[in-house]
Amino acid sequence: MTETATSNPTGPRPRRLTGGDVGIPPRHLDFRLPTEMVRWAYADNATATLFLAMLSAIFPPGEDFFVRSVVHFRDRVREEELRARVAGFTAQEVIHSREHDRLNEAFTARGFPVHVPERAVALALTVLDRTSPRQQLACTALMEHFTAVMAEDILGSDEFARRVHTDIRELWHWHALEELEHKSVTWDVYELIGTDGPERRRAAPLVVATVLPAVLFGWAYLLVQQGVWRRPADLREGYRLLFGPGQFVRRVLRRMPVFGHPRFHPDRHDTRELEARWRETLFGDDGALAGQLRRPLRETQDLSPRDAGPARPTP
User: Taking the model in full, what pTM does it have?
Assistant: First the structure.
């Protein structure tokens, strides 16, 4: 009987799939943040700018929690494609944390104490750490749904591009693209281990009771520290820009309840065309960020955002 190549122990072993093979490539980008960043980068409004600074501050601890909750179940992931998607998700989140750490340093240099919202959210997440690993994964699935909806809103209209200064705009566009690329990974791992109705129903109250107060405290602290609380016109305009009828945050929040639908899956809302358009816009031959692309971070399922050392640029 003729021996097949797959049964020959001396034959070449098939290459292991990576995140890039399954549409979740880890892109190391060294963003060229200006030395003197514009002070009010969101529509020249302090209230809205500090909301954006607060979001940037909470991404590193939040994404560390996301990665840990998914990686906890990596040994249950046997299917090769999903393993590759988990690896791509992990590597993308590592790089997101690194670049937001750099942006947060720039905000700090501008006098914004963004370490306060960062620590507040990190403390809130320690409460979620005390729940079961399955419950943590359900909470992560909910928060990943939020980031995916926010990412789609950022990329789906020109509003964000018009309002946010070029100093930091492309960093948010890149982050939003990758949030859409890996938006279903957490949910697919959760489905693999067996979704649970009560866990899903508890996710929203748990996140609202822990993370939301930390987020609001962090934003309020920045508003007080920067003296914006004494500028009612700025507060009103910032609230309108974010939460007014038809505005950014209100649009995102209106889409959150779909997470509770029995047939929920992130991919039921198709964003592939939007992703393809922005991949070309950012990383095509003439893409806005093509020149800042460096060697991708090595993909691993054992890496958390705070464990990754600085990626080395291509020689």
Answer: 0.89
